Amino acid sequence: MFVDFIRVTWFIMRKDIRVWIRQPTTIAATILPPLVLLFVQAVGAQAVGRSPVALVVQDPGPQATRIGQALRAADVFRLQEVNASRAETLLKNLDVVAIVTIPGDFGSRLEDHQPALVDVTVNNLNLDFTNDIRRAVPDAITQYYLAQGPSSPVKVYVKETDMRLRDIDLFQYEVLPTLVMLLTLSGLVTAGLATAREWERSTVKELLLSPASRGAIIAGKVLASFVTSFLLGILVLAAALALGWASPQGIYWLITVLVVALVALMGSGLGVAIGAWIRRVQPVIGVSIILAFYLFFLSGGVGVLAFEPLWLQFIAAFVPLTYGTHALQMAVFYSSSELLGRDLVVLLLFALLTIFLGVVAIRRQTQE
After folding, report:
1. Signed CA dihedral, 347, 352, 355, 361: sign only
2. What value does the mean pLDDT take over residues 33-51?
3. Mutual angle of helices 252-278 and 320-334, in 10-degree steps
4. Which domains can be identified in the chain, with CATH numbers?
5. Rounded to an integer, what distance in angstroms lies between the CA atom of residue 65 and that of residue 55?
6. Core-most of 57, 84, 186, 319, by most CB within 10 Å?
7. Which of 213, 215, 212, 220 is nearest to 195 (CA)?
8. What is the mean pLDDT of the chain?
9. Is-above-0.90 flag for pTM?
10. Residue 159: predicted pLDDT
11. Nearest to 238 by CA among 340, 301, 332, 344
């Protein structure tokens, strides 16, 4: 019986994979939504990551040059060094969000021990941009004094202790939640369509009248979706590695692959359940995309969950994508096993739960 189970599972899995390969619309429904989201995130990260600022240096002296260097080294601006009239034009046309002006008497006032002005004109149309400028300019001035060392009139010492091994760009940080959503969506669509298609084409009757057990039928469909979703996830990881977006080290490669496998398995089990309950191809695609996006947003996929509202953090605790995203971020970005045991256990339990739901759904629908 075990041999028969394996053989039936293998044939159903192979059949579903072949059908999936011949259905470009299914592949498009799986890949396009995450790609569109990734494009939007890339544009958004480019817009808010480094604010466009016009720098006007009217003092040719060494002190003005130093503070200009401090502003450039701050690495929070996209600076355009222009004259005053050009800066006004850029600000008026919304090409820059602020003008930082170092006036012509900046150096002489410092030498006379008088207050020296750094003029900042901000277009406060958006609090995010405005606060970036308000924080970054004083920080650059602090770095200006720090760079002067013992000769600085203001003794400033900055000691920074980083909790993580390296800094992660905003867009780079958003890649992994999108990968988790892609795995979930792939499992939902692939398994959901493969299951719903059996009812829509009435081939489910042939399966049920055959000697194949229902367990083998379900296992074949789950495995077909798992294989395609898992391979897609590995392909995306390879692309992220080539582009420098992800670089897990040592054993964390194994952890990354394991998390990808668990998320793909969870999405596949849930896809079988949805396909059996809905039993129509087109509605399954719509429900799968909407569900994947809702799970993505409710798991805090658009930001850092710890800084999101408390109500969202509460909901995210019950969303499995939360744990998949956290495990991947720790392994890929920080080479850390922080809460890894919790994440893996939750993902495994949810994967088993979704497979159980698939079994229940198929049994109920075939008994009607």
Report:
1. negative
2. 75
3. 160
4. 13-44+168-366 (no CATH), 50-151 (3.40.1710.10)
5. 12
6. 186
7. 220
8. 86
9. no
10. 75
11. 332
**pLDDT tens digit sequence for 297-324:** 999 888 888 888 999 999 999 999 999 9
Instruction: Using alpha carbons, select from 158, 124, 166 the residue that is nearest to residue 141.
Output: 158
Decide the pairing of beta strands 98-102 and 77-81. unpaired
Query: Contact, 225 vs 275, CB < 8 A?
Result: no
Tokens in use for 45? Answer: 């990260």
Q: For residue 77, what are the β-bridge partners?
A: 51
Residue type, 92: K
Closest CA to 128 of 38, 43, 50: 50
Locate 237 and state its tokens.
């990881």
Percent of the chain, pLDDT > 70? 95
In contact, 146 and 69? CB cutoff 8 Å: no
